[in-house]
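Q: What residues go here?
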């Protein structure tokens, strides 16, 4: 049973957008924007395998991302490579495997998303998980912020940054696995990064930055769905275009303020 109620569709998409933007706000501060984009591609082979076995692609994406995240976290803690380089390795390997094992029709859906084909159970689960993602990220906001300033400072305050970093990567994996059903693996990076980048243009404090990231993410989602439905277009790409439009608006506001 797919989601055929517009109200439910709006609620689910808004929650996913809010969670993506909130998690993405930390990613932008930590200068890891490309990590979120690359991780979305890691989900492709997992989605392909799940679809082949008649399982929800969200589950397949989550399993693939969990394996990649644990590997990236372990390699980051035990090697001198930066996260971006490690994600790049997993990205290229998984994208190649995903393209090889995914049929053409399924590949198109995985790359660009199709939230209208999401089942009611998937929708409810995605909404609940999105709320939990925001609550957990909010719980660890202090050590995450301190680690942005200095990893050494975070360690000196008594926080176990290894576990917190693993938890953060895990939250990124969950939100990406939910979002790929919404906007697809190719466009998921925009759902995570662009609202946060937009908020950074106009925010005056950390608190307003997080709130604006979430607000811009939700508004972009709603605007994209409205335009897509009105013009009978695919929702995922239009949501991303709406998000880019919001970024341009905030950039203009930033320029005007600068003058």
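A:
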């Amino acid at each position: 049973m797919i989601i055929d109620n517009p109200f439910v569709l709006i609620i689910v998409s808004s929650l996913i957008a809010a969670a993506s933007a909130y998690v993405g706000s930390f990613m932008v501060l930590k200068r890891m924007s490309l990590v979120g984009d690359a991780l979305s591609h890691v989900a492709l082979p997992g989605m392909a395998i799940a679809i082949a076995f008649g399982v929800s692609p969200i589950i397949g994406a989550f399993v693939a991302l969990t394996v990649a995240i644990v590997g990236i976290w372990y390699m980051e803690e035990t090697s001198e490579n930066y996260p971006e380089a490690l994600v790049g390795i997993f990205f290229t390997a998984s994208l190649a495997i995903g393209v090889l094992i995914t049929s053409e029709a399924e590949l198109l859906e995985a790359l660009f998303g199709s939230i209208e084909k999401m089942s009611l159970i998937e929708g409810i689960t995605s909404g609940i998980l999105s709320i939990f993602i925001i609550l957990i990220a909010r719980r660890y906001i202090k050590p995450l912020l301190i680690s942005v300033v200095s990893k050494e400072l975070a360690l000196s305050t008594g926080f176990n940054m290894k576990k917190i970093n693993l938890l953060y990567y895990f939250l990124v994996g969950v939100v990406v696995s939910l979002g790929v059903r919404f906007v697809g693996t190719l466009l998921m990076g925009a759902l995570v990064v662009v609202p946060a980048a937009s908020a950074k243009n106009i925010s005056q404090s950390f608190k307003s930055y997080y709130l604006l990231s979430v607000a811009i993410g939700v508004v972009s989602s709603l605007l994209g769905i409205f335009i897509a439905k009105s013009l009978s277009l695919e929702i995922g790409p239009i949501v991303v275009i709406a998000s880019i439009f919001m970024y341009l608006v905030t950039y203009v506001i930033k320029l005007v303020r600068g003058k």
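A: Context that may help when evaluating the design: The mean pLDDT is 77. The chain has one domain: 6-188.
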